[in-house]
Structures are given as C-alpha cells and as structure tokens.
Amino acid sequence: MRTAHLIMGTIIVVALALVQGCSPAGKTGTLEFRANGEDFVRQGFVSKDGWAIGFDHVYVTLAAITGYQTSPPYDPHASGSIDSKQDASLSGTYTVDLAEGGDDAQPILVGSVSDAPVGHYNAVSWEMVKASSGPSDGYSLSIVGSGSKDGQVIDFEIKIESEYAYSCGEFVGDARKGILEADGVADLEATFHFDHIFGDADTPPDDDLNTAAVGFEPFADAASGGRLVSDLSSLKSTLSEEDFQMLKDIPPPLGHVGKGHSHCDEY
C-alpha cells in the first residue's frame, strides 16, 4: 500500500510539473521595438573639441529586427550567433528619425509584434541597411544638423552608406526590458550613442570614448561656405587618413541596448 501511495504521489508531482512547465505555451503578448538616440540627439551636446552640436534629423534605417529568449544569456563579446528558445521578429524595413519630437521625447516606436510568445526577451538583433526611398535614400544613416563654435556655424549632412548587423544581449539601464506576460506589453530598445562620433566635452579627454571619436573639427575643416554634405566615399578624400579610419571604425560601437554593448558585423 505504501509503495502504491508513493507511486501515485510521484505521478501527481510529475503531472503538476508538466502542467506548470507547459502553462505558458500558446500564451502571447505585444512586444514593441523602439529606437533611441538619447539626449545627445534630442537635446544636443558639446563635442570633445568644443563644438556645440545640434541635430535636425538623424535618419536610421532598420531591418530584420528580432527579440530572443536565450538561456544562457547571449554574450556579445563572444561574437557568436544568438541561440534562442523563443523569438519574435518584426518584418519589414523601417526608417526612423531619432531626432523626432521635443527635448524629452520618448524613444521612437519602430513597430510591434502582437502575438509574441510570453517570456523574457534578453537579446535583440537588427540590421542597419540602406534606405530605398525617402530623405536618406541610399544610406543606412544620415545625420543632419549644425555645429557652432566661436561665432562660426557649420551646417552638415553626414551620410553612411555601409550596412551593419548588430547582435546584443539584455538591455542595461535603470529598468529591465523585454519581460512579456500574457496579454501584456513589453519593449526592447536599439540605442545609438552619437557621442562615439563627435566625442563629449563632459567626458575626460583621455577616456576611450574621446580618444576613439573624430570630434567635429575635422568635419568643420572639410566644409565649404559653412556647409558640409558628404558621405564615407567623399570623406575619404577630405579627412586625414587617421580621422577617416576612426570614422570607419565608429558604426560598430554606435549600436547599444541602453548601456549594454553589441556585436557588429559590416556586410
């Protein structure tokens, strides 16, 4: 009798475990994908070489945006592919203006997946691709704004024609992101740090951020009549070899998840 009770108890425990383990199956919620240029884009900042930078438009074109549930967590420094238990992808290609809205605007909603499986999305990937139409046609990134210093004003359009694929782990910030419950809403964020291009006067000069940044002075020197409209191909002949190489090296560390890093491949 005791043996029978033990067997019956074991069966009940196993059955309960199976039910609990399978309970999320089929349950979904809405997973939002957002893009954020942070206060650097919305409010402007001072470059490492003292130019006050303001942005009118920052167009970035994104595709193949996907959120993942990974175990163990994805490590972007390991440079491997993301191995997930569940994922949710946003189909299509989207051009967003990271400078859209006021100084305190929220990150731009790129799109959402309404039937994403519940769970913790602790990794995200996206591609930065050339736009096929619109104001940044032919470019994956188009930065429009002005720089001012000592009474001099330079209007600029700096365009990047190369394309990149980013793979990132979990968002690092004040709050965790990507925890999706049944019939709930969660979001993931592609964050872009534009101080990597121009540097930041509020950061020590010998910080890695500033030593790897071009600054704005080389772009001002390349301007004509107070205006610079250029892409990588033309900047190769106007910037010094060192400055051009730094500019070429910037897109990989441009993409983040909050303060979290990403792995980037150019293609």
Written account of the structure:
There is one protein chain. The chain is α+β, with helices and mostly antiparallel strands and 267 residues long. Helix content is 23%, strand content 39%. Strand 2 and strand 3 form a beta hairpin. The radius of gyration is 23 Å and the shape is elongated. The model is unreliable at 1-23 (pLDDT under 50).
In short:
This protein has helices at residues 2-22, 38-43, 195-198, 208-211, 217-222, 232-238, 241-249, 251-254, and strands spanning 28-36, 45-46, 52-69, 86-97, 108-117, 119-120, 123-128, 141-149, 152-160, 164-168, 179-180, 185-192, 227-231, 255-256, 262-266. The protein is an alpha+beta fold and 267 residues long.
What does the average pLDDT come to?
A: 91
Query: Can you tell me the overall shape?
Result: elongated
Secondary structure category: alpha+beta
Main sheet overview: 9 strands, mixed
As a whole number of angstroms, the C-alpha radius of gyration is 23 Å
How much helix, percentage-wise, in residues? 10-25%
How widely separated are the two ends?
69 Å
Which blocks of ≥5 consecutive residues have pLDDT under 50? 1-23
The DSSP helix count reads 8
* SSE pattern, N- to C-terminal: HEHEEEEEEEEEEEHHHEHHHEE
How many structural domains?
Answer: 1
- The tally of beta strands, per DSSP, is 15
Q: Beta-strand percentage?
A: 35-45%
What key attributes describe this structure?
alpha+beta; elongated; 15 strands; nine-stranded mixed sheet; 267 residues; four-stranded mixed sheet; 8 helices; disordered N terminus
